[in-house]
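Design a sequence for this backbone.
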């Protein structure tokens, strides 16, 4: 039962963080100042893609846990692969965005890592 709680809490955290990532997209892009149209569109696309990816990972873990059951080998594999993806994203964030002065960008690797740990613990317990 505790494994389900860990997985659902991790899912909620990363979904909320993904939504929080999506909400300020317009102001984030404006914060870069004067950009060419191509650069503005590229930054917008990348910002939205990361937010959607986090939401997708959270939803995927939530629904495979809900419908597949934690005893299912495929469910466990999906959960662990999602944790791996979050760790990769956390490393990328650590090497890029976390090196800026923007506080939410500094928090991002921590949120992704905590969620990955919750997913891994939930898949092993």
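Sequence:
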């Amino acid at each position: 039962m505790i494994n389900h709680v860990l997985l659902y809490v991790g899912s909620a955290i990363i979904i909320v963080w993904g939504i929080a990532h999506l909400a300020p997209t317009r102001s984030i892009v404006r914060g870069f100042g004067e950009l060419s149209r191509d650069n503005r569109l590229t930054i917008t696309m990348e910002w939205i893609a990361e937010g959607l990816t986090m939401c997708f990972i959270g939803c995927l873990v939530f629904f495979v846990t809900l419908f597949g059951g934690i005893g299912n080998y495929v469910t466990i594999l999906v959960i662990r692969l999602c944790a791996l993806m979050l760790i990769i994203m956390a490393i990328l964030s650590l090497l890029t965005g976390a090196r800026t002065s923007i506080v939410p960008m500094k928090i991002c690797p921590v949120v992704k890592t905590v969620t990955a740990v919750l997913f891994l613990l939930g898949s092993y317990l």
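The CA atoms of residues 7 and 119 lie 5 Å apart.
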